[in-house]
Design brief:
Elements (H helix, E strand, L loop, with lengths): L1 H25 L20 E8 L11 H10 L1 E8 L3 H14 L6 E2 L5 H9 L7 H5 L4 H6 L21 E4 L11 E5 H6 L8 H13 L11 E4 L9 H6 L12 E4 L2 E4 L4 H15 L12 H9 L5 E6 L12 E3 L20 E6 L6 H9 L5 H9 L6 E3 L2 H6 L9 E4 L28 E4 L8 H18 L14 H27 L8 H10 L2 H15 L3
Parallel strand pairs: 1-2, 1-3, 6-9, 13-14
Antiparallel strand pairs: 3-11, 4-11, 5-9, 5-10, 7-8, 12-13
């Protein structure tokens, strides 16, 4: 009897040890069905995770979608889809109704996520904090690749002001879009007039005067517009481009700069005033069109696509809408301002919030591991963008990589066989639902094959040249700049209205100074005094505190 009891006790002890060891192997996960961080599949026994999505009409069927099958097989899970309305606003309304009625929510929500909603639903207990995973090695795939993708602050940008991280994020960096504030130079006109690309402000003014005076489109009519942008549209801001010649324009339009770690604004500086002086000179000389401050982007795009060509230098984020003139324009290297100053606006390529785990989730360990595991899959990056391997895209041979190189190092580089983005298809989820990490060079790059599988080498060479110019522009990024500021709900409530009033005043006066409705010399002090009355320094101090908190200072 004693011997049997001893054997039983030994067996119990052994099992308890195995349990402890299993938990240690699995830490920080407590679900015994979940495998250790950084391993696949994520589940020992297949389980189901429900995912709420804002329905995308381009996806034929979520259940049979090829990329969904790929994820399920890779992780050993089944996914149950809960479809919400197509727009985020309608989807959030439905979610609010479900919360108010006490209905069971999907395990994971993948829509309507931003700093405000993450904090709102997190503090309400709808989304669970994920800190225990991030702080204790649960995000092994993410940790292994954060430095590789050039995002050391990845988690900072996902952290709510209360210190919790309620989401998993997606890094969506783009090699070219990081220099979105670009000026597109008409190279047909440059060749027709035998001009050299400008390197200084004086050079730029000289080129624009030739565009104005020398009939570069050859139609015998003075219809040329030397330089133009629009009042709206992606990175279509002529004054932002000019300001970078003297100081710095941040892509959020707050006029923030960071110097020696301290946040400041530029709209009260002499450098800003000097930029206004140059912009006004350009308008007065007919070099910069006043339409830049009033017209919409569609009008700007029409100028870029016109036949005959009428625009010499267009400031906007992309030349894709220039139609048959697409190849006539190239990205101009930024010119040098006073005292050798050169700056380029950096458009932050920072994480966006992709999904959150709800308090209804019975297997949060499984849900977290499902989403987090995709950070470690470099093939998934390309699937998310281009679809099914060997059907929508395929890898290149080593020889083809050399021949077709478009000048983006360290990146996934493939041959696209057919376009699927924005198309009705069943290959992928159109970059929605699941987290992704891309390399520091950006989204998976590709060259395009025609129906016979042939590649246009002339286009490859043009793309290579364009990417080299983007690389050159990146050399003028400031050493420090604001990538993101996360505000508390109290800060937003207290300051958002004043921010709108101040920025509206700054932008209104900016346009008035440039077109001559205000005098840069005589009305400058009045402008500064009005900013002080508005308490712009109080707003700046609050921004500094929020910025320091966001950056973990």
């Amino acid at each position: 009897m004693k011997k049997t009891l001893s054997l039983v006790l030994m067996l119990v002890f052994a099992l308890s040890c195995m349990s402890v060891f299993a938990e240690e192997d699995n830490f920080p996960f407590t679900d015994p069905n979940v495998t250790a961080p950084g391993t696949l599949p994520i589940c020992k026994e297949r389980v189901t995770v429900s995912i709420g999505v804002s329905q995308n009409s381009n996806i034929i069927d979520y259940y049979t979608n090829w990329s969904v099958q790929y994820v399920q097989d890779r992780c050993n899970v089944d996914i149950e889809w809960v479809l919400f309305p197509a727009t985020d606003a309608d989807a959030e309304s439905k979610l609010d109704l479900m919360i108010a009625s006490g209905a069971e929510l999907p395990d994971v929500i993948t829509f309507g996520l931003n700093d405000t909603t993450a904090l709102k639903y997190g503090q309400a207990g709808v989304y669970i904090p994920l800190n225990k995973y991030y702080d204790n090695g649960g995000a092994a795939f993410l940790n292994a690749r954060m430095e590789e993708v050039g995002q050391p602050n990845f988690l900072n940008y996902l952290t709510s002001p209360d210190g919790n991280i309620y989401v998993l994020g997606r890094n969506n960096s783009s090699f070219g879009n990081v220099v979105a504030y670009r000026a597109w130079l008409n190279m047909d006109w440059m060749k027709a007039l035998d001009l050299e690309e400008p390197e200084t402000i004086d050079d730029l003014l000289d080129v624009l005067r030739h565009f104005r005076d020398d009939d570069p489109n050859g139609n015998g009519i003075a219809d040329e517009i030397p330089m133009v942008s629009s009042a709206a549209g992606w990175a279509a801001n002529a004054f932002a481009y000019i300001l970078d010649m003297f100081d710095y324009y941040d892509s959020y339009g707050n006029y923030h700069v960071v110097e020696d770690g301290v946040l400041d604004v530029v709209y009260d500086r002499e450098t800003y005033r000097d930029a206004l002086r140059l912009a006004k000179q350009m308008v007065d000389e007919g070099l910069l069109s006043e339409l830049s401050f009033t017209q919409d982007f569609a009008s700007l795009a029409a100028m870029g696509a016109s036949d005959p060509q009428i625009a010499g230098l267009l400031v906007c984020g992309s030349k894709s809408s220039f139609g048959n003139n697409f190849d006539s324009y190239t990205c101009m290297i930024n010119v040098e301002g006073p005292d050798g100053h050169k700056a380029v606006t950096k458009t932050p390529q920072i994480p966006t919030m992709m999904c959150a785990i709800t308090s209804s989730c019975k297997n949060p360990d499984v849900a977290f591991r499902l989403m987090e595991s995709l950070y470690g899959d470099t093939t998934w990056e390309t699937i998310q963008y281009l679809g099914q391997p060997d059907v929508d895209w395929k890898d290149l041979t080593d020889e083809e990589r050399v021949e077709y190189d478009i000048g983006i190092p360290g990146n996934k580089f493939v041959l696209r066989l057919k376009p699927i983005h924005g198309q009705v298809q069943n290959s992928n989820l159109q970059q929605t639902v699941f987290p992704t990490l891309t390399t520091s060079a950006g989204i998976p790059q590709y060259i395009v094959a025609d129906a016979d599988g042939n590649v246009d080498m002339a286009q490859v060479l043009k793309t290579r040249e364009q990417n080299a110019r983007y690389d050159e522009l990146k050399k003028s990024f400031p050493a420090e700049c604001v990538e993101k500021i996360i505000y508390t709900a109290e800060e937003i409530d207290a300051w958002s209205e004043l921010r709108t009033v101040i920025l509206n005043y700054v932008n209104e006066c900016q346009a008035r100074f440039i077109v001559g409705d205000m005098d840069i010399e005589n009305d400058w002090d009045t402008y500064l005094a009005e900013l002080e009355k508005m308490n712009y320094e109080g707003l700046l101090e609050m921004d500094r505190e929020a910025y320091n908190r966001t950056m973990g200072k």
